[in-house]
Amino acid sequence: MKYAILIYRDEAKFAALTPAEVQEMRGAYVSYVQALREVGAYLGGEPLEATSTGATVQVRDGRRTVQDGPYAELKEQLAGFILIDVADFDQALEWTARCPGAAFGTLEVRPVMPMDH
């Protein structure tokens, strides 16, 4: 089954990290993704730019509205995602707990809804 691991972190705390701390975190993610690849579970994933670079879009009654940045003020912001393919939810939870982001942020794991394409 496919699962999305959504990685949330406090952007202000992340911005305060030293270059050495950022490099250490990147190295941990490289190792984590390599471990996922070795067992054939890694499908993809990417870090996201800061919420200030994005926008929130809604369409109501045929009219589009765009708001700069995130829709709601949150303590932690969506920082990235990883897609995995593992046997079941328990394995997804195990891999989510191994993600480096779990040590400094909040991770959400959710099954990917199958779509007929």
Describe the overall structure.
The chain is built from three helices and six strands. By secondary structure, it is α+β, with helices and mostly antiparallel strands. It has a single domain (2-111), classed as 2-Layer Sandwich (Alpha-Beta Plaits). The strands form two sheets. A four-stranded antiparallel β-sheet has the order 2-5-1-6. Strand 3 (55-60) and strand 4 (63-68) form a beta hairpin. The longest helix is centred in the N-terminal third of the chain and has 20 residues, at 19-38. It is flat and about 45 Å long. The two termini are 17 Å apart. The model has no long low-confidence stretch (mean pLDDT 93).
In short:
This protein is α+β, with helices and mostly antiparallel strands and 117 residues long. Helices cover 30% and strands 35% of the residues.
Could you give the topology of this structure?
Blueprint: E1 2-9, H1 11-15, H2 19-38, E2 42-47, E3 55-60, E4 63-68, E5 77-85, H3 89-98, E6 106-111
Antiparallel strand pairs: 1-5, 1-6, 2-5, 3-4
